[in-house]
Amino acid sequence: METALTNQTFVILAVLAAALMVVVTGGVVYLTAAEWRDRRRRKRDQEAIAPTVKKTKRKKKK
């Protein structure tokens, strides 16, 4: 009886550990994709703003 309970406990713990690994891995993948998307959006926004900024010409000192 004690052996069966021990085996059942280990099976439950193993399944729980596997489920937690899947959840953590999914979270890491989500955060990585979100950061990549945000970085791409920031770069696109900077490129859209950059041409509108006028560069002032420096006057040559005599």
Short summary:
This protein has 62 residues and is mainly α.
- Report the sheet with the most strands, covering strand number, pairing sense and barrel closure: none
Helix and strand composition category = mainly alpha
Q: Mean of residue pLDDT?
A: 88
- Which H/E pattern describes the elements? H
How far apart the termini lie comes to 99 Å
Radius of gyration: 28 Å
Relative helix content: over 70%
Model regions low in confidence, pLDDT < 50 over at least 5 residues: none
Number of helices: 1
Could you tell me the strand content as a percent range?
A: under 5%
How many beta-strand elements? 0
Gross geometry: rod-shaped
Name the descriptors.
mainly alpha
What does this structure look like?
This protein has 62 residues and is an all-alpha fold. It has 1 helix and no strands. The chain has one helix at residues 2-49. It is rod-shaped, with a radius of gyration of 28 Å. The model has no long low-confidence stretch (mean pLDDT 88).
Chart the SSEs and their pairings.
Elements: H1 2-49
